[in-house]
């Protein structure tokens, strides 16, 4: 039998090894495709609030404040042909004017404009870009959706 001080050291060593193994497992993807572990962007909880906070002041429902005759609060207006381009082309970030504008380094092209004092973080830019790449799914506001029963 091991002396008590050695058993405690052995137990600590075993616990430390287990913690390291768990941490390594958590930080490495289980398959070669790390994208499979990333949850899809949720329009209702991630995109609509972002657009509402950063974009709807100029591109929302208020016709008096609307700029460039563009509404981002309506799916139809966001996806419509605007004379050879669309604000959002689902699944195609290269063809989407929204992605071009939020990523632009040109102050005259960048959205939101510099003089608006509104900025998108890099994480928000990445989120919007991912949303477009994933097909830019829209969802009705929860208050307009029919309630669904869920099994208890």
End-to-end Cα distance, whole Å, is: 53 Å
Uncertain regions spanning at least 5 consecutive residues: 6-32
**Total number of helices:** 6
Q: How can the largest sheet be summarized?
A: none
- Molecular shape: globular
Proportion of residues in β-strands: under 5%
Give the fraction of residues assigned to helices.
Answer: 40-55%
Rg over CA atoms: 24 Å
Q: What does the average pLDDT come to?
A: 82
Strand count: 0
Class from helix and strand fractions: mainly alpha
Question: How are helices and strands ordered from N to C?
Answer: HHHHHH
Question: Characteristics of this structure?
Answer:
mainly alpha, 152 residues
What does this protein structure show overall?
- About 18% of the residues have low confidence.
- The protein is 42% helix and 0% strand.
- The chain is built from six helices and no strands.
- It is mostly helical and 152 residues long.
- Helix 2 packs across helix 6.
- The protein starts with a helix and ends in a 19-residue tail after the last helix.
- It is globular.
Concise structural overview:
Residues 6-32 have low confidence and may be disordered. By secondary structure, the chain is mainly α.
Q: What's the SSE blueprint?
A:
Blueprint: H1 4-27, H2 43-54, H3 56-59, H4 75-79, H5 97-103, H6 122-133
């Amino acid at each position: 039998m091991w002396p008590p001080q050695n058993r405690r050291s052995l137990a600590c060593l075993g616990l430390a090894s287990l913690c390291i193994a768990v941490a390594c497992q958590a930080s490495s993807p289980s398959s070669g495709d790390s994208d499979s572990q990333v949850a899809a962007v949720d329009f209702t909880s991630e995109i609509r609030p972002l657009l509402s906070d950063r974009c709807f002041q100029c591109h929302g429902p208020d016709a008096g404040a609307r700029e460039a005759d563009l509404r981002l609060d309506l799916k139809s207006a966001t996806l419509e042909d605007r004379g050879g381009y669309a604000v959002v082309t689902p699944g195609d970030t290269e063809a989407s004017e929204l992605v071009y504008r939020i990523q632009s380094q040109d102050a005259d092209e960048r959205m939101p404009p510099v003089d608006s004092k509104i900025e998108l973080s890099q994480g928000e830019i990445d989120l919007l870009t991912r949303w477009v790449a994933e097909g830019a799914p829209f969802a009705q506001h929860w208050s307009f959706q029919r309630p669904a029963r869920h099994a208890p």
